[in-house]
């Protein structure tokens, strides 16, 4: 067992970051790395990863319900119609991360998500970059921060008008939605996505 894994009172091994509080533990146990294949679900994860850039995931997760309320449940049809009044409302919403560029990017990404329906939609597009194999890290130092697939996904999304979708952010998205399994070997969640054995 690596020092990056902690065995909790329930006898389950989790990475250090997921063992630090109940919110992160619940997210790790129930959500992180599970397949997301709906457009709204993927748009939400993409948006939250965009806002997380440069911040801790704990901050974003603690504000997730406020983000959902502020961004119309991350329904791309609604977010794409946001006006300057909506932008100002978001900039004054203390419940979310008030970053001008990230708010503008989320609105632009909603518009790009709708346009992507002509190519089969956001889920099919994102999942088409699923790699042939997944990492099997034993420690945090072995977890990649980007991959050839995340670089290609970022490049193609940018071509289609998406913003704040760099290769590192896209790799984090791929981890969050189960496209790669970077649960540490020895974690109780390793292989739980149903995609990777």
TrEMBL record:
<keyword id="KW-0326">Glycosidase</keyword>
<dbReference type="InterPro" id="IPR052891">
    <property type="entry name" value="DNA-3mA_glycosylase"/>
</dbReference>
<dbReference type="InterPro" id="IPR011257">
    <property type="entry name" value="DNA_glycosylase"/>
</dbReference>
<dbReference type="Pfam" id="PF03352">
    <property type="entry name" value="Adenine_glyco"/>
</dbReference>
<dbReference type="GO" id="GO:0008725">
    <property type="term" value="F:DNA-3-methyladenine glycosylase activity"/>
</dbReference>
<protein>
    <submittedName>
        <fullName>DNA-3-methyladenine glycosylase I</fullName>
        <ecNumber>3.2.2.20</ecNumber>
    </submittedName>
</protein>
<keyword id="KW-0378">Hydrolase</keyword>
<dbReference type="InterPro" id="IPR005019">
    <property type="entry name" value="Adenine_glyco"/>
</dbReference>
């Amino acid at each position: 067992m690596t020092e990056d894994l902690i065995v909790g009172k329930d006898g389950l091994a989790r990475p250090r970051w997921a063992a630090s509080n109940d919110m992160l533990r619940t997210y790790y146990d129930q959500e992180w790395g599970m397949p997301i294949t709906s457009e709204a679900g993927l748009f939400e994860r993409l948006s939250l990863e965009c806002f997380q850039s440069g911040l801790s995931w704990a901050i974003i997760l603690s504000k997730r319900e406020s983000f959902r309320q502020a961004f119309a449940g991350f329904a791309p049809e609604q977010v794409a119609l946001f006006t300057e009044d909506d932008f100002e409302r978001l900039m004054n919403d203390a419940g979310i991360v008030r970053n001008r560029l990230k708010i503008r990017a989320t609105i632009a990404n909603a518009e790009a998500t709708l346009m992507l329906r002509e190519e089969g939609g956001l889920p099919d597009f994102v999942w088409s970059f699923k790699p042939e194999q997944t990492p099997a890290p034993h420690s945090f130092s072995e977890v990649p921060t980007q991959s050839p697939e995340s670089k290609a996904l970022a490049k193609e999304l940018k071509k289609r008008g998406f913003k704040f979708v760099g290769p590192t952010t896209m790799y984090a998205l791929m981890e969050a939605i189960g496209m790669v399994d970077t649960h540490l070997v020895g974690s109780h969640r390793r292989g739980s996505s149903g995609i990777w054995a």
